[in-house]
Amino acid sequence: MGIWFWVLIGVAAVAILIGLFVWSTQNSLTKLRVRVDEAWSDVLVQLKRRSDLTPNLVQSVQSYATHEREVLERIVEARSAVMSAADSGPQAMALADEEFGSALNSVLAVAEQYPKLKANENFLQLQHSLVTTEDKIQAARRFYTGTVRNLNIKVNTFPASLVARALGFTVRPFFEVDDPAALEKAATVEFSGHSSRPE
């Protein structure tokens, strides 16, 4: 056995180690990407659930506040924008959700002016459903943010970044707008002493 034999053995060992590293890194990145997709799907489910409650909210408020047409039209338009943004990704959805939160606050502010509406059992149940849904949305957003952070760290960390780049893995966007303070202000939903804030 000459020196070339040991060189070949060494090259083969290095190739095997590199192959194992690529295989392991690819599996890890794939799992992270699947978790991000799953988390995003959960965000969309919760946003759809809230959107499904909106017609009932509009109907309840409209029956007591018939002259508040502009406010009610705004939330209907905001709901439509949220549903349309579902296929446009997290950043477009965050912008639509920002507007929806602002429109929802306007409708609830109108409701505060009508004691009979505030005392209506159906409206109270609807408020409770909205509070629960807002909490679920925030939980889903936190989970999505965490999974995106984990994927983005892996994609950007050397040497995994070499494999990620070669295999087409990229960083994923967070669910946020350019001005997080504006998002928080607009999407803070007030429900008679209970507030739900984005995380």
Strand content: under 5%
- The number of helices is 7
CATH superfamily: LemA-like domain
User: Largest sheet, if any?
Assistant: 2 strands, antiparallel
Large-scale geometry: rod-shaped
Number of self-contained structural domains:
1
Account of the protein in words:
It is rod-shaped, with a radius of gyration of 24 Å. The chain is built from seven helices and two strands; from the N terminus they run H-H-H-H-H-H-H-E-E. The chain has one domain (7-191): Up-down Bundle (de novo design (two linked rop proteins)), CATH 1.20.1440.20. By secondary structure, it is mainly alpha-helical. Strands 1-2 form a two-stranded antiparallel ribbon. The chain has helices at residues 3-64, 69-84, 90-111, 115-119, 121-156, 160-167, 180-187; strands spanning 189-191, 194-196. A hairpin with a 2-residue loop joins strand 1 (189-191) and strand 2 (194-196).
Key structural traits:
disordered C terminus, mainly alpha, 199 residues, rod-shaped, two-stranded antiparallel sheet
Describe how the helices and strands are arranged.
Layout: H1 3-64, H2 69-84, H3 90-111, H4 115-119, H5 121-156, H6 160-167, H7 180-187, E1 189-191, E2 194-196
Antiparallel strand pairs: 1-2
Helix pairs in contact: 1-2, 1-3, 1-5, 1-6, 2-3, 3-7
